[in-house]
Design brief:
Ribosomal Protein L25, Chain P; seven-stranded mixed sheet; four-stranded mixed sheet; RNA Polymerase Alpha Subunit, Chain A, domain 2; about 190 residues
Length: about 190
């Protein structure tokens, strides 16, 4: 999985007034939760733009002075009117402990059911996984080469040697639905 380096500055003043002052200076108050003590810091809006406004999921390398901490983005709070980022929460991770994260789901292949006139329905865009930092991929690929009309793939049908899937096992990932345009002859050809 990709890494995003973020140089941060520690916050000395905490509280509502200090946070409002930072926001007026186009800085975002942040907090790092994790192993023991919480760490309060701030970043500039431009520094996190490529981290926040991307479809990719990335590990964040927080550079605090001479030290480095690894984290994942947990929550972003936006202003309800202006849509500016007003606060970011990070969760600290280590290379030796498993991390739970949602990664993009990529559908590949050519379904016989879709070729016969069925409609492909992707129910999930992101999938929850748990694993060591080194084992988390940029995305998880699901092949639909075997899906006929009426078939589907659930979370329990997915397999990985290094990852555990954290979403509900009976949740549908992708399915091929019958449509009015799906001819009986086309459906018979897929069987």
């Amino acid at each position: 999985m990709k890494h995003f380096e973020l140089i941060v500055e520690l916050r000395e003043d905490l509280g509502k007034k200090a946070s409002q002052k930072l926001r007026k200076e186009n800085k975002i108050p942040c907090v790092l939760y994790g192993n023991g003590e919480n760490l309060h810091f701030f970043v500039t809006e431009n520094a996190v733009r490529k981290l926040v406004y991307t479809p990719e999921v990335m590990f964040v390398d927080l550079r605090i002075g001479d030290s480095m901490k690894y984290a994942v983005l947990k929550q972003i709070q936006f202003h309800p009117v202006s849509d500016k980022i007003i606060h970011i929460d990070f969760q600290e991770i280590t290379e030796s402990k498993p991390v739970s994260i949602h990664i993009p789901l990529k559908i590949t292949g050519n379904s016989p059911g879709v070729r016969a006139g069925g409609k492909l329905k992707q129910n999930m865009r992101m999938i929850g996984v748990k694993g060591l930092m080194k084992d988390i991929p940029d995305f998880y690929t699901v092949s639909i080469d075997e899906l006929k009309i009426g078939d589907s793939i659930k979370i329990k049908d997915l397999q990985s040697e290094t990852l555990e899937f954290t979403d509900n096992k009976n949740s549908f990932v992708v399915s091929v639905l019958a449509t009015r345009g799906a001819s009986a002859a086309g459906q018979d050809a897929t069987e």
